[in-house]
Amino acid sequence: MTSPQSMSLLPSTVPLATPDDMRERIRRKSRLKGRQPEEAAMADVAQLLGPRPANGFRRDLLIEYLHRLNDHFGVLHDRHLVALAKQMNLPMAEVYEVASFYHHFEIVRGEEAQAPRLVLRVCESLSCSMAGARELLDALPARLQAAGQGDVQVLAVPCVGRCEQAPVAVVHQCPVPQATLDSVLETVTLKPNRALALHPSAPAAINFDIAALAEHSVPAQPDGISPAHTDLATYRARGGYQTAAALVNGEMDAEGVLAAMEDSGLRGLGGAGFPAGRKWRIVRDQPAPRLMAVNIDEGEPGTFKDRTYLERDPHRFLEGVLIAAQVVGTEAIYIYLRDEYHGCRALLQKALDDLRTEPPCPLPHIELRRGAGAYICGEESAMIESIEGKRGEPRMRPPYIAQVGLFGRPTLEHNFETLYWVRDIVERGPQWFASFGRHGRMGLRSFSVSGRVKHPGVKLAPAGITVQELIDEYCGGMLNGHELYAYLPGGASGGILPASLNQIPLDFDTLQPYGCFIGSAAVIVLSQHDRARDAALNVMRFFEHESCGQCTPCRVGTAKAATLMEAPQWDEELLDDLAQVMADASICGLGQAAPNPIRCIHKYFPHEVGEGPWPGDLPKPRNSPLAEQLPQGGQP
After folding, report:
1. 289, 338, 375, 401 from 407: Cα distances, Å
2. What is the pTM of this model?
3. What is the per-residue pLDDT across 325-378, written as a single tens digit (0 to 9) for each?
4. Distance between CA atoms of 100 and 105, rounded to whole angstroms?
5. Alpha carbon 205 to its chain's center
């Protein structure tokens, strides 16, 4: 027991904190951890998102909400991402990882960060590089500065889907075809801000009859930007939507439509070539509810056929969508359109609005979704991830999306052009479509032709036509002073073939023995003024840029391959080993197809990379805008 004397020796009581200090400590502990949204940022986001739905903002619309912010402010401010995460009740990291995945979203930090007045994008993919895009990119900054337009941001970007108009620049959303320094500066002057630099409106109305163009070229429009199109009244006046209405109203047998699709031999025209009728039957046999996803993320360099048709007749496509949805029994339809196609987006949205105002029959739920600049979202499962508001990373398979697809439901996935042909096949009969073809092949193919030809564009030619026939009969021949040296039969992924193989039928399954494939039927023509090795390097850099990064063989392999391909003399053994690993271990078609250009150069153009003598029957390439600068003493 402590005595009074000992108690007197204890120190006097010292308070740990004042009442105010304790209150402040409690306030600090009660605050949420992490960065909290600012009131002003919350107000900005709330204004752009609109009234909060009763069940909250949909998670799958995250990318659409990011577009609203990006369109309004020109960039994504970090403070707005914090506020958006709060509004959607999502972790900040989840919003950030989605926003940072897509090329068209630029995230900026700090109160002082501002968007550029305009962003000027110049395509540097193969067709545009051949047409002088690199010189344009090199000269633009100085010319803009001299013209007092130095606050315009210049970016080199992948293919914008206008290869027939190469080189192409895009001032904010306004394309500049056959771009020159003068035409680009004129557009920047006439459209000095984001509000004015929009895609020109499309005039109406024409009757665009695709069947009448069979075995012909699709005519080019005078301005090349906004061609006249078929509106709803014009389309319905010529029998449009009658087939879809008859099917929905029970006046036409769904099984008969399905049989017509199977008998026509129509295959998926996005690149994979899976029989369309068989796909319908597979998905129809899956348990309900079933969904439908349409892929218009036309990002393969050299491809522009979907844009060409959509610009001219959106309703023929929509009728194909309705027919497919009715036959397969899908409850909702999601259309995924690449972000670069601003004019198409406005046109398709107007067509959907008109259709809902004057429906020819009961319509299913249809949503138009906007990509955000990611080539990988052309892969079907990556597109589905993007529609769900996530990073566009391909899924492992199985299960296949026909079984477990969008929102976990069985999903019918189709390319735009596949559905574009449905009405004509059903109404004209499967024999009509199958009656076209050459060299033992069957059907029609829409070839996107660009490069060293007199008349590039979309050529609706018989399946099985050879590249020489395509050039001579549909493109007016090679440009003056140019000879066929090489060609890419299927865009960046499809490989490269020499002129000596100009008689191979172009179709599904005919090019595989040569290490190539037709893919989306994007034909890029090279002449003696080009080098195949430079084309291969251009597409490999594209793959490096567009790899989603999910799997190491693709992410690291494309970068390593591009570096190795810059050498005057290739390390054949190392590149072949790298190509094998990429093809075997990548989980999706990007990494699996990326080695095709390497293998084609080894096989058909070894003389260009120091692996063999120059063949006497091949014209020697000369310097061109596409050519790489070789080190001192290097040999082409």
Report:
1. 11, 21, 22, 10
2. 0.91
3. 999 999 999 999 999 999 999 999 999 999 999 999 999 999 999 999 999 999
4. 7
5. 28
